[in-house]
Fold this sequence. Notes:
The protein has 221 residues and is mainly beta. It has no helices and 15 strands. The strands form two sheets. Strands 1-6-7-10-12-13-14-15 form an eight-stranded antiparallel barrel. The radius of gyration is 21 Å and the shape is elongated. The protein starts with 10 loop residues before the first strand and ends with a strand.
Amino acid sequence: LEVNNFKKDNVYGAINAGATILNDLDFGADLNYAGVTTTVAGTATFDTGASISGTIGYILNELFRVEFELGYTEMDHDKAEVGATITFTSGGSTLTKTGSGTVDVSGQVEALYGLTNVILTPLGSKSFGNGKLTPLIGGGIGFVDWEDTIDSISSGGTTLTVNGEESATDFASNITAGLEYSQSENLSIGFRYRHVWINSGKNGVEDSEADNIAGTLTYRF
């Protein structure tokens, strides 16, 4: 297919807002993360967070687009699940949870991300109602600049104060699928689902994966 010469009319911008689900993260008995060490392995869980981002894109032809997206997401820590008695240590103090179960974790994960994606529209745009419906699939690579803050860990009425943080900038990749609906040449609404992998594993914690679902408002210049 012929790729068009640059045309201003093919440039578009979008605002995206939605929810981010950070997948459970396994940690090992060798954990030394945000000022916390442990004696056995376990799994950290997180509350559903929020995301907001902006996108600049260009329509190469009827089947291909390229996009750059810059966004921000955050979510709270929830719990740590363990299968055996565990001791958490931070700043010379300890907290022991006897037997399997969960402990409460207070803290927050924040991330600024940038992604460059290739978006395919393999079915083109189909008439739907009074407008057009366009399925989207694609993926790409980028970076995530993240900070994970752990304030405290609590169990059985006892709280271990941590006030520690871990941060880095890591490589990320993603796959994306969605739908776009328009009733005019310039304005469209839609939604996108994205699965992201981040090369963030360190200090006894595995790499991160997340799912993001966002609504989009797109304006074509």
